Amino acid sequence: MKKLAAVILAGGQSTRMKSKTLKVLHPLAGKPLISYPLGVAKALKATPICAVIPPNQADLENLLITLDTTIAYQNEALGTGHAVMLGMKALTSFPDGYVIVLSGDVPLIQEETIRGLKQAMEKNGARLGLLSMRLAEPSPYGRIVRDLDGQVVRIVEDKDASESEKAITEVNAGIYCFDKAWLSEALHHLKPNNVKGEYYLTDLVGLAVEQNVGVVAHAAADPHEFLGVNTRIDLARVAEIMRRRINHRHMLAGVGILKENDTYIDADVAIGEDTTVYPGVFLRGTTKIGKSCVIETGSVLTDMTLGDGVHIKPMCVLEQSTIGDDTAIGPFAHIRPKSQIGRKVKIGNFVEVKKTVMKEGSKASHLSYLGDAKIGKEVNIGCGTITCNYDGHSKHETVIGDDVFVGSDVQFVAPVSIGAGSTIGAGSTITEDVPENSLALSRTVQVVKKDWKPKWKRK
């Protein structure tokens, strides 16, 4: 089986997106657009992979470097043929084999489709293969022109097509597979003889027919795979299809999604079987959810790790933290980054936790802020408790030992340490360390004045 290399075309200026962000960097299900065709190329074990991009795009360059992708720069937009010429210069060390050409703004393409095209080329001994699709509304795609025997003769771009050619419904999907040796020689024959004065990659089809080296047009079953992104409307349309695809994959793996059109799961999210996801949930980034969890309406999880049996109640925001097995969070709770919530913990309504460790069996049921804290096992945090972690200049830590009972409306002025087994009386402001098995109180003496009235009543 011949080896495979890839060229990713991403040289467009993205003017129709009306954005400072380059089109191929716009997010789709938690990842940049270009990462999807790159992912397909990697899944097919293509190496090397070269992306052809505009100059002076540092963000895109940095992304491609992290994805182990070679970069070629297209300083002047002279068409797809010109872009492939530039990409091929990065493949000089690649031995004879196949070169696939993908588009950086066509994110729905799938590995199986490219594999089918490659197999069709191998079966027919063709030097050029392309993917086609049939559309009721073929504009603005290039039309595939066939002869009376059904063989591909050429591809004509929409802007250059005659009226009869514009009536053709089989169109070019813009994805190709070439024999590398033939492509290297054929690119020298491209001429900018068209309305825009560009080098069209599609002209290679006519050249291959003329040279009788074999052309294969492999029709794909799902035309949605070839939807390109040029505007934000296109991006929204593609996102809907991608969301449905992701949700179906999870449901087939045993995840209960109650309303698929209103559930937003990023591409790299992992979910265990028998977990139930309610409508209006956003699961973002690299979130990993265990088995038999429940994620209720309106909750947003970003780069989270959840154990088994976790219950996230409605309207919670959780970020970059871990949650242990059989823990309940919410409703209306906020878990901020770098928090570690243990097993069988309860974080209740309107509780905010930030950079805090909370060990097994502990609970904070209502209206509390726990920041920069280490909380032991079986600790009760009373309603209205605050760890005062910021002195106006630096953050400080509160340490609470195992089996501590904290009454309501307590403030811990960090840095402060509470020994295991202690009790903190309600309404206390704790500014000094508390030894183990102690009762700590910090209250002024209650004053009662009988028969007292405010001044306005006395008058």
Describe the overall structure:
With 459 residues, this protein is of the alpha/beta class. It folds into 2 domains: 224 residues, Spore Coat Polysaccharide Biosynthesis Protein SpsA, Chain A; 187 residues, Hexapeptide repeat proteins (UDP N-Acetylglucosamine Acyltransferase, domain 1), CATH 2.160.10.10. Helix content is 19%, strand content 29%. The protein contains 9 helices and 41 strands. An 11-stranded parallel beta sheet has the order 12-15-18-21-24-27-30-33-36-39-41, covered by helices on one side. Strands 14-17-20-23-26-29-32-35-38 form a 9-stranded parallel beta sheet, with no helix packed on it. Strands 5-4-1-6-10-7-11 form a 7-stranded mixed beta sheet, sandwiched between helices. A hairpin with a 5-residue loop joins strand 8 and strand 9. The longest helix has 21 residues. The radius of gyration is 31 Å and the shape is elongated. It starts with a strand and ends with a helix. The model has no long low-confidence stretch (mean pLDDT 93).
